[in-house]
Amino acid sequence: MKNISIITLGCKVNQVESEKIAEELENSGYNVSMGLGLSDIYIINTCAVTNEAERKSRNIITKILKLNENASIYVCGCSSENNPENFKKSSNVKKIIGTKDKLKLVDAIKSDDSEYDKNSQLSHLETRVSTRTRADLFVQNGCNNFCSYCLIPYVRGREVSFPINEIEKELRILEHFSKEIVITGINLSAYGKDIEGSDGLIEIARLFKNSPSRFRFSSLEVNVITEKFLQELQSYNNFCDHFHLSLQSGSNNTLKFMNRHYTKEKYLESVNLIRKYFPNAGITTDIIIGFPTETELDFEESLEFVKKVNFSEMHIFPYSKRKGTVAEKLKNVATNIPQRIEKMTTLALENKRKFIESNIGKVHEVIIENQKEGYYLAHTKNYILCYIKAENLNSNDKLNVIIKQTYADGAIAEICQ
Ligand code: SF4
């Protein structure tokens, strides 16, 4: 039986798609592992979100060939859609498939593999999902937003929502094995726009009514934060009060050049609405530093806005120029990028510490994920990483803990007796 390694870069959607490829290959009798290891066959699921992500995607080929110079390599994902030539240089690369129907790689591997034995078909989807505490439910693909800095609409194509009955079928399998489900999509907030009569994400939430798993959304845009949406979510005790609300900039001028379709005032309204219904919600975000038009004043405005929101966690990215986007052609006036990143990161860490401190003494439900340095690791519903000293816990154990103090990138928590 041949060994196949799948190396995944980039977003949650790529991870979900790699899992699906892995399932199909295992069902076809292959031995599949995730990550870079010694194998006969490799699949690289690439990312194009930044120049750095594209460089990393290309460099994986060199790393693979150091491990096995005879490896057969198959490439899929956004970077291979955007720049297929970058992957054609090595004769070890057998097929490049882009973003459309990545599962076709499975057929390509089987037809190239002279030793492939049709009779070795297995059916062990269950063994793949059973080990995961947190599973992703992929409900939507593509994006029509065309933020001026982003390549995704060009490489992933237009928005497509998956039919609710198919999503439900997938959920019923996942909830059997994973105690937490993350609802995910390329532009998740667009879910249902292309389905007549759809109630959007509320319809997905309703699938969790009697589910044994708790659920959270991976990333949302401000347009979906309405009273109706939050009231619905409030009625589920298995909903995780964690909202990842993409900001990208806290300067109205920059938001306009980014083609983000909201102002900082609208964003703050959404945050306040969330806090009205979920006072202790974790509100996390992404922010881009050094967008071409971002002047020193714009950056200071952004910093001030971030102070006002008090995010529980932030992902800070330096702007990356992507060929073919509108932002590529903008005059670059942004300076002092490393200093700006440092200022924003300092503020983000301070806000995170304050958020965790505000939870000290509070009881939280957690689900054990794994172990590190003598602690069990688990996230609260509002997404605080807890370090728990205990014995004989297993991954997927659900328990209540009390947060004691900040620690490393999260908090020390004790099991409630
Ligand atoms: S919403 Fe904007 S940043 Fe997100 S995938 Fe669509 S175009 Fe890219």
Task: Please describe the structure with a list of short key phrases separated by commas or semicolons.
417 residues; five-stranded mixed beta barrel; pyruvate-formate lyase- activating enzyme; Rossmann fold; 3 domains; alpha/beta; binds iron/sulfur cluster; OB fold (Dihydrolipoamide Acetyltransferase, E2P); five-stranded parallel sheet
SSE map:
Elements: E1 3-8, H1 12-27, E2 31-34, E3 41-46, H2 51-67, E4 72-77, H3 78-82, E5 93-96, H4 104-112, H5 125-129, E6 134-141, H6 152-156, E7 160-161, H7 164-177, E8 180-185, H8 201-206, E9 214-217, H9 227-234, E10 242-244, H10 252-257, H11 264-277, E11 282-289, H12 296-309, E12 313-318, H13 337-357, E13 363-372, E14 375-380, E15 385-388, E16 398-407, E17 410-415
Parallel strand pairs: 1-2, 1-3, 3-4, 4-5, 6-8, 8-9, 10-11, 11-12, 15-17
Antiparallel strand pairs: 6-7, 13-14, 13-16, 14-15, 16-17
Helix pairs in contact: 12-13
Residues 143, 145-147, 150, 152-153, 186-187 line the site of iron/sulfur cluster.
